[in-house]
Amino acid sequence: MKLFTVVATVLVVLVAAGTASAGCMATVGLSSTPKADLAPGQAWFVQVRILQHGVTPMSDAKPEIRIRRTNGKLLVFKATPTPKVGTYRARVVFPRPGRYSLSVYDGFPVKECAQVHTFNAVVIHDPS
Hints:
The chain contains one helix and nine strands, in the order H-E-E-E-E-E-E-E-E-E. The chain is α+β, with helices and mostly antiparallel strands.
C-alpha cells in the first residue's frame, strides 16, 4: 500500500508539472510597423496583442517594445494595458537615423516562459 501511495503521488506531481508547462506559450502581434516617413524623435504609437497559445488574450502580460540601432544600446519601451483584454499600447521613439532591430518581450507572467519575439528591422531616415 505504501508503494502505491508513493507512485500515485509521483504521478500527480508529474501531471501537474506537465499541465503548468503546457500553458507556456504566447504569440505577439503588432497593430502596425513604423511608417517609412517616421523621422528621428517622432513617436510611433503601436498596439501589441498578446495571446496565450495564439488564442486566449492575456490580461496579465507585461510586454515591452525593444529597439536597438546597429551597434547601439538597447532601448526599452513598456507597453500598458488598454481596455481591450490582451491588447497593450506603447509609445516608441527612434532617437536617431539608422537601422534598428525591432522585438517584443511578451512579458509572460511565468518568467521562465517569457520570450522575445523578433520582427523585421526598421530604417529611420534622416529628414534632411
